[in-house]
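tokens incoming
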């Protein structure tokens, strides 16, 4: 089997190599520059979001089980959770954007968005944990 590389694919791969090799090495406990603080805020948000997604899946499992066990004509707890989560994501994003407006256009704006998003995401994860426990899981 013959593999043919187009010029764009080869160029794209070569162009991406330096970027992949330059992952920032930041000590987030001692971040000093705005770029470092923003990077650390992003990492914090990513960790919070990962925990939220895991807890959301656990909550979905609990509500789906509840709907099956309830044996009602219209299982609704899972649909309500999905609607609530979608509304919450829209709220979080809009709230954090408005919160960061105090630094709009400045280098600190992305950090404020990440910090706000991480904080609200951790709070939502706790809410979902309580909900999961309320449904018996």
């Amino acid at each position: 089997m013959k593999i043919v590389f187009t010029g764009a694919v080869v160029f794209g791969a070569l162009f991406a190599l330096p970027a992949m090799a330059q992952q920032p090495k930041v000590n987030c406990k001692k971040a000093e520059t705005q770029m470092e603080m923003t990077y650390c805020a992003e990492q914090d948000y990513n960790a919070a979001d990962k925990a939220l997604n895991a807890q959301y899946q656990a909550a979905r499992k609990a509500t789906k089980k509840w709907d099956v066990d309830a044996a009602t004509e219209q299982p609704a707890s899972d649909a309500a959770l999905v609607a609530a989560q979608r509304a919450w994501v829209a709220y979080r994003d809009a709230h954090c954007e408005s919160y960061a407006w105090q630094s709009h256009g400045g280098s600190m704006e992305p950090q404020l968005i990440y910090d706000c998003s991480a904080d609200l995401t951790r709070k939502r994860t706790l809410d979902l944990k309580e909900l999961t426990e309320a449904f018996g899981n």
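note: The chain has four helices and no strands.
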